[in-house]
Amino acid sequence: MRLRNWLDHFKFRGYGLPVMQNGKPVIPEAESGLHASGHACGPDLLEIVRTIRPQKLIPVHSQQPGFYKEKLEGSGIEVILPAEGVPIGL
User: Fold this and answer.
1) How many helices (H) and strands (E) does the chain have?
2) What separation in angstroms does the CA of 83 have from each of 58, 80, 88?
3) CA distance 50 to 46
4) Beta strands in 2-64 (DSSP E)
């Protein structure tokens, strides 16, 4: 409810956030299913990687880690795709 308090303080209207009903947090029916991510889009992430120019890139929080392998091929940045239970030597 901390977010709700800040939004109320600055007189912002939150959408898709729980409101208290009968002592329980409930998302209003008309706002159910709304979602906004704080993540950057693919092209922006690639720009960041190309600007930083790491020797190795290990995408660990990605739904499509192969995206980086494909897009960074020939860039000199080694893309290491992690596999569960397989150690990565640095």
Assistant:
1) 3, 4
2) 11, 9, 9
3) 6
4) 19-21, 24-26, 56-57
pLDDT of residue 10: 93
Tell me the per-residue pLDDT of 37-79, one tens digit each, with 9 for 90 and over: 777 888 999 999 999 999 999 999 888 899 999 999 999 999 9
- Under a CB-based contact definition with an 8 Å cutoff, are residues 19 and 28 in contact? yes
Beta bridge partners of 19: 26
Q: Is the pTM of this model over 0.70?
A: no
Owner of token pair 């029916």: 29
Write out the two tokens for 39: 């993540």
- The candidate with the shortest Cα–Cα distance to 1, out of 22, 26, 32, is 26
